[in-house]
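Following up on my earlier message about glutamic acid. Here are the inputs again, as you asked, copied directly from the submission form:
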Amino acid sequence: MSSHTLLEELVEIARPFASYGKVANYIPALSDQNPDDLAICIYSIDNESFYAGDHLKKFTLQSISKVIALALVLMDNGEEEVFSKVGMEPTGDPFNSIAKLETHKPSKPLNPMINAGALAVTNMIKGNTGMDKWERLIEFISHLTGENVTYNEDVAYSELQTANLNRSLCYFMKQHGVITGNVEDLLVLYTKQCAVEMNCVDLAKIGAVFANDGWDAESGKQLISRDVARICKTFMVTCGMYNNSGEFAIKVGIPAKSGVSGGIMGSVPGRCGIGIFGPALDEVGNSLAGVKLLEGLSAKYSWSIF
Ligand code: GLU
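Thanks, got it. Here's what our run produced:
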C-alpha cells in the first residue's frame, strides 16, 4: 500500500473522533471553522511530502507559534536571558491560567508554552518598533516554510478585542518586571503571531526543520541552531500538548505542539515533520481527531522517541 493510501486510511479512521470535540469559540473568529475538517502532511527531512485530507486548507497557528517565537528569541537573546524571564517546568494548569504567576516564586511564568510564558517570550523579540519585531518574526517563519507567509487579520482582530485574560497576564508580569514596554503593543504583536496562517504542508515543513536539528535541506541552511532546536523539541515533549502532555508522551511519544485552531506540529527527530489540522478540540484544547491520527501513525511506524 502506498504511503498516500495509508495516510488516507488513517485519516478516515481518526475522522469520526471529531464528533466528540468542539471548535474553539473564545476567539469569536475561530468558531466559523468546520469541525469535520481533518488533514495531515508528513514532510521528510529530505523534502519528500505525503498528505491526506484537505491539505491545502489554511488555518491559524495559535499556540503552535509559541515554539517558533521561542526559537527566534533564544537565537536573539541567548538562553541565560530568556530563562531569566520564563521557566522550564511543565504545569498541570490550563494554558491561560494566571494562578501560578502569583503562587510560584520567583514570579515568572513556568514555561514558554503557556500563554503567560509565550507573552514574555514575544516581548523579547528584538526590534525598535512593533512593526520591526513583526517583520523579523514573519520573515523567520517564511524562511522556515520556504513560502511567503502572512496572517489572518480577522482572527488577529477578533482575538485582540477579546484578549482580556492575556491582557491581565501582561499587566501582572509588567508589575513584576517580567515584561517591559506597552502592553497593548505587545498584545497586537502576540495576536498577529497567533493568527499566522498556513496549511498543513507548511506546518509539516517547519516540523521537519526542528526534526533535522534546525537544518533545512531545501534551502541548504541552518535556520535554527542545533541547541535551540533541541530546547524547543524538549518543551514540545514536556509541555507541547497542554495539560495532556504526559498522556500524549505515553500514547504517541512524538515532540509536538498544538494550538486552539486545531493545528498540531509534530517533529520526529531525524525523520520528518508532521502538520495536522482538525479543529474539533478535546477539553484541554488539543485536536481530538488529530491526536487519534498521531496515535495511529506513531504505532504504525514506531515513531515514539521513548
Ligand atoms: N491565541 C491563543 C490565546 O492566547 C492561543 C492559545 C492556544 O492556541 O493555546 O489564547
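One observation from looking it over: The chain has 13 helices and ten strands. Hope that helps, and feel free to reply on this thread.
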